[in-house]
Amino acid sequence: MADHLPQPSSIKGRGTAVRIAHRFERDAREGFDDGWGTLDQVAGEETLAPSTTVIEERARLVIATNDSPDIPFGQSLNPYRGCEHGCIYCYARPTHSYLDLSPGLDFETKIIAKVNVVERLEEELGRPRYRPSVIHIGGATDAYQPVERRLCLTRGVLDVLGRCRHAYTIVTKSSGIERDLDLIGPAAQAGRVWVSISITTLDGALARILDPRAVAPHRRLRTVTALARAGVPVGVNVAPVIPFINEPEIEQIVEAAAQAGAHSIHYTVLRLPWEVSPLFRQWLQQHFPDRAERVMARVREMRGGQDYRAEFGTRMKGEGIWAQLIAQRIEKAVRRAGLTRHVPPLDESAFVPPQQVRQGSLF
């Protein structure tokens, strides 16, 4: 459900211009013609690009657990809620609804920073009942989005995990991860790190509307190379695959990833949970009106006739002939490029609780 007030067609550098109402709102606003031409005036006014607001949060817990068979990790950590990259397809957008914020423009302009993430992480790792297993960083929102340059929350997390010899994985579409190679490199040499770089397209013009504040595709490939040269096992995540938009590039992305030094390829198909669906459909009509109906028809073919279905086993890859065709193309491209589809096993046996690390530093 979106506001019925006139909305600008786009805002430069933002994924959407709409503050769509979230699913928990009780009230909806609708424009009213008062006879003075107010609606036309509002619609014609130039809209200033909204600035990013960082809201500090003191989190109670920072390690989340899951038992989903679709996700190859049991623990995750996200230093931020919301993401300034502004990817229109982001499946995490609906999480802003729980904050009474819009999954639309608010998601990419009102960023929640868990300023006590390092302190809480040390507390949770130090609990007597804690059992170490790989922690996935950035699975919901990018841990290296622009605000990280200033706050360094992700760097603090990696410092703790490094000192505790804890295994972790990272997924990002930012070259900002290169800043932390001094922490990631040694952990990778010890077999405790794997990194995935998300590359949605190789087309810079398409990237500017799909991932408006993420780094350009060629820059992401340079990051893959930088990680590989530093001895960090790195994969490329072709995600999400969107029929008729970036889907034609599957083979080219895999080949470019191989040339950049990636060792593995992973992918998901487009997911449109909750408020993401109307946001994405509006984006399609704005940028690709000639193929919008074809795109949504194929999406629904892979989702049992719906915009989205959340069943385990199919929610990441879809189902039906089109989903099978995408899977076959990925597999063939991976074999042709000499890559793999597997994440390397990480060493979870060397973990040392934070209190023992501190005690050891006294001697």
UniProtKB/TrEMBL annotation:
Q: Which Pfam families match?
A: Radical_SAM (PF04055)
Write down the InterPro entries for this protein, in alphabetical order: Elp3/MiaA/NifB-like_rSAM (IPR006638), MJ0683-like (IPR040086), rSAM (IPR007197), rSAM_sf (IPR058240)
CDD domains according to UniProt: Radical_SAM (cd01335)
Q: Care to name a GO molecular-function term for this sequence?
A: catalytic activity
Please, which domain of life does this record's source organism belong to?
Bacteria
Q: What is this protein called?
A: Radical SAM protein
Q: Which organism is it from?
A: Caldimonas thermodepolymerans
**Organism lineage string:** Bacteria, Pseudomonadati, Pseudomonadota, Betaproteobacteria, Burkholderiales
